Amino acid sequence: MAIQMAPSILSADFANLERDITTVSNADWLHVDVMDAHFVPNLTLGLPVLERLAEVSPLPVDAHLMIEDPDHWAPRYAEAGATSVTFHLEAAADPVAIARDLRALGARSSVALKPGTPVDQVLDILTEFDMVLIMTVEPGFGGQAFMPETMPKVTALREAATASGQALRIEVDGGVARDTVATVVEAGADVLVAGSAVFGAEDPAAEVEALRALAEEASHR
Ligand SMILES: O=C(CO)[C@H](O)[C@H](O)COP(=O)(O)O
Ligand SMILES: [Fe+2]
């Protein structure tokens, strides 16, 4: 499957989101970080803002929910227009029920794991998901240092999906930049979130293409 680039608007200009989204329309997904100040110690945006972003975005919206009670909220984000909804396993009471609700609403189901959460917790229920997000920083803030110790989880997931023939997407999020992109792709990731690397660059669209080129090169090695 082709590598997908997903710029995170966490590092965009929150007073000019439509402008900044349009700037990266050469990417594949728009990664929108929803934080509730409970599951993580930061607060960003919620349903009404995501709904408008989905309306104006030229890219499908990849909602990353860092919130409590995803059993209730995750389907609401699918209804609001997110094409892909990622909720955290650590916050979920019934992850399989959430995944089925998301798919029933026509969204892609996706589950995220914090750096300290073992991957075996999703291996038995992998077919319920279109994507697994392996966090490569502690969730909550952009601009943090990449954690290479999370890579064995990516590899274990890729091996499990390959063994069963599942076309699973594996997303990585946090500290993805020119110096880490080969590492994540070689481990088996194929959806790359980048916030500060893209929106901190002088030319965000060119940075998307530079990261994509490095990722493609690593995937053919
Ligand atoms: O989910 C997130 C933080 O919890 C963001 O998507 C992530 O941090 C992107 O930012 P950067 O690329 O700057 O690390
Ligand atoms: Fe994110």
UniProtKB/TrEMBL annotation:
Keyword Metal-binding found: yes
Enzyme Commission no: 5.1.3.1
Pfam families: Ribul_P_3_epim
Binding site for substrate: S8, H64, G140, F141, G142, G143, D173, G174, G175, G195, S196
Spans traversing the lipid bilayer: none
Species of origin: Demequina zhanjiangensis
High-level lineage: Bacteria, Bacillati, Actinomycetota, Actinomycetes, Micrococcales
Function description: Catalyzes the reversible epimerization of D-ribulose 5-phosphate to D-xylulose 5-phosphate.
Key words of the record: Carbohydrate metabolism, Isomerase, Metal-binding
Gene name tied to this protein: rpe
Family annotation (Gene3D superfamilies): Aldolase class I
GO molecular function list: D-ribulose-phosphate 3-epimerase activity
Protein name: Ribulose-phosphate 3-epimerase
NCBIfam families: PRK05581.1-4, rpe
Domain of life of the organism encoding this protein: Bacteria
EC class of the enzyme, as a word: isomerase
Catalysed conversion reaction: D-ribulose 5-phosphate = D-xylulose 5-phosphate
Cofactor requirement: Co(2+); Zn(2+); Fe(2+); a divalent metal cation
Active site, per annotation: D33, D173
Cofactor note: Binds 1 divalent metal cation per subunit.
Pathway recorded for this protein: Carbohydrate degradation
Residues reported in the UniProt entry to bind a divalent metal cation: H31, D33, H64, D173
InterPro entries according to UniProt: Aldolase_TIM, Ribul_P_3_epim, Ribul_P_3_epim-like, RibuloseP-bd_barrel
